[in-house]
Predict the structure.
Amino acid sequence: MSFFSFASDAGVIDRDAVALPGVAPPAATQTHALMKTQTGSDSSSADLFAWYAGPDPVSLVLESYTLALVTAPLVVVETLQEIQFHGKDQTPHSSELDAYESVAKEKQTVAVIPSLGSDVWRNIRTLSKSPCLGTLGFVKGNVAIAIETHINTAQTTGHFTTFLLQTLSNAAQPFVEESLNDAFDVFDDTHPVTNLLSHVLISTVLSPLELIRTRLIAQSVSELRYYGPFHAAAAIAATEGPYRFGALYAPQHVYATIICKAVSSLLKSLSHSIIKYDLGLSSEYNPILHTSAVLVFLAGEVFVSTPLELARKRLQVQSLKPSRKRKAGDAIIPFVGCVGMNNVRRYESFFEVIQRVIVEEAATSNGGSIDLAAEATSSGTSKTALATAGGYDDEMDAYLSAGSLNSPKKNADWQDLYSPSGSKRNLKSATSRNQSILTKYWKGLRSLYRGYWTRYSIRVVELAFEGLRDAGDNAWDI
């Protein structure tokens, strides 16, 4: 009888052995049972977390926190650029909030941040030196609790809102996308349709966090309304909208989020497809050309999405109308911001914001504004009367003449404003009128892109973090 046959027989005996009372099982049987128990526990743990398809949790938390810390100043600058109103306030003493009652409160003058231009670093320096914000104010909107100091400035204790938003989004989006792929029998790892749907669904669910972050960044430090994200959520639910926490998912906010995220995700998938399949560029074989192409397409994506994000943020800082189901004494409390905001007339829809920004606002090259012809209005003279008295043919020329940027000539036309040497006036010609109209709307279009370079800088930083993540599987592991 050989050794191998003996070992085989012993294994059969151990397998078929029956445990008797008071008799200890053989050592081999105990070892086999222990291994089986450990294997069962490991499989149960694996089944418990089998739904999670995202990155490693520790590396995800570390990456999200670092990204929130690096981009915090840019997020603050971009938000304030986009919500700042550059037109002339027609009602400087009290704001008329259309068809519903407003709370009239006599308050001291609220200090606001000066007009912000498109220069990213100049805006950062302006905000850091401003008593309304300061250096520590760059982490507004990303904090767990905001405390009020003895000089009534909101200082912050740590990042939270942006960090929480990025962590939840990056963790849940792969799971939702994989679930959609399984539901629709999609065998590709990344399909444009399921990728777009997953981003839209997750962004819609997490849209209250973006609303809260925008409110925390935009609020005036002298009239502190929210003391943190949780307090902001409770305050919005208690004072705005029809259905308590349903105010966080108001239709105007949800629709704006769906439009912005759908367009952004679609452009991102389209640019990725063009770079990979049409241009044939790869980060492994063509690193320089691939990176250059990504940056160029990223600029186009930001160019399309910037006006949409501006409209969404304008709606986010606008207090919701109270429902008829609320008590008769309840009235809306206008939101007071740290920058000058639209107090003239409410925005009623997403695309109305874009239209009115083009018509009502005009940004100059140095970040200032061309005011509406309200000097004559405040003194009892209408814009039409001003146009007639000054010899102008239409209100467009009077508009540009009123905002002459401290020009010594009272009736200077647009050539005197924007040309170094000036030119002879010929206001009665059709060419001059057309140029005036084009100049006005061109400035209005430029005002839609105040936050373009800031948003592009944020996307470049996010792209760098994505490259660091893709450089190695354990790039963010501790």
